[in-house]
Design brief:
The chain is an all-alpha fold. The chain is built from nine helices and two strands; from the N terminus they run H-H-H-H-H-H-H-E-E-H-H. Strands 1-2 form a two-stranded antiparallel sheet. A hairpin with a 2-residue loop joins strand 1 and strand 2. It is globular. The chain starts with a helix and ends in a 7-residue tail after the last helix.
């Protein structure tokens, strides 16, 4: 993906993130939320899905790994918005790093740990993030598509009691992330009606498979 084409994607993702964050608090960017803490916590969850234990056989769950990367990107985007990062410059930095894959070493786990170390210092380092993306590998184009899907799920969660604790994260024995991944495969994230169609399909499945959809 070129820097020019990624600029519009980046602006759209920032707009979606701002809208989602406003569901949590209308003045979210002034609340000093610990996004950095959420990032290093997500890094640990990511490694659990990828596998890091040398004393047992583990197979990477790449679907969940990519969803965790997108979760990290949600919090990273929030930090970039608060910092008023220049979108054009950010697009150039990220696409340049994606194209220069020679800078990345062989260990995906090491790149995740490097990103977490920056987060522990209250920073979101886009270079470390892109090194992690490259090591998997995970393209910016795919990040854009899956981010939009996860953003829909996050909005859906908030609209259905996630903050209050009434939301049901498991539907018929499967986590909502799994249902999301299944539904995204049936839609085109680059279509203008993707967001509304995915939201409606999530809503229909949630009502069908949980107590929310049961008659009293």
């Amino acid at each position: 993906m070129t820097a020019t084409s990624f600029v519009s994607c980046l602006r759209e993702m920032m707009d979606l993130q701002h809208t989602h964050n406003q569901q949590v608090h209308p003045q979210w960017h002034k609340q000093d939320y610990p996004f950095h803490r959420a990032i290093w916590t997500e890094c640990a969850e990511l490694l659990d899905h990828y596998g890091w234990k040398w004393w047992k056989l583990q197979e990477p769950d790449l679907v969940q790994v990519k969803l965790e990367i997108v979760d990290i990107w949600h919090f990273g985007l929030s930090m970039l918005i608060v910092a008023e990062q220049n979108v054009v410059e950010l697009s150039e930095e990220m696409t340049s790093r994606e194209q220069d894959r020679s800078v990345v070493g062989p260990s995906f786990v090491a790149t995740v740990e490097a990103l977490a170390q920056h987060a522990l210092k209250r920073r979101f380092d886009t270079t470390a993030f892109m090194d992690m993306m490259n090591a998997l590998p995970f393209s910016l184009q795919d990040l854009y598509g899956i981010y939009k899907g996860k953003n829909v799920l996050n909005r859906f969660r908030q609209a259905n009691g996630y903050k209050e604790g009434s939301y049901q994260k498991f539907w018929d024995g499967k986590e909502d992330n799994v249902h999301l991944a299944e539904l995204v495969l049936t839609l085109d994230p680059y279509q203008s009606n993707f967001l509304s169609d995915l939201y409606n399909q999530l809503d229909n499945r949630y009502r069908e498979l949980t107590a929310e959809g049961q008659s009293p």
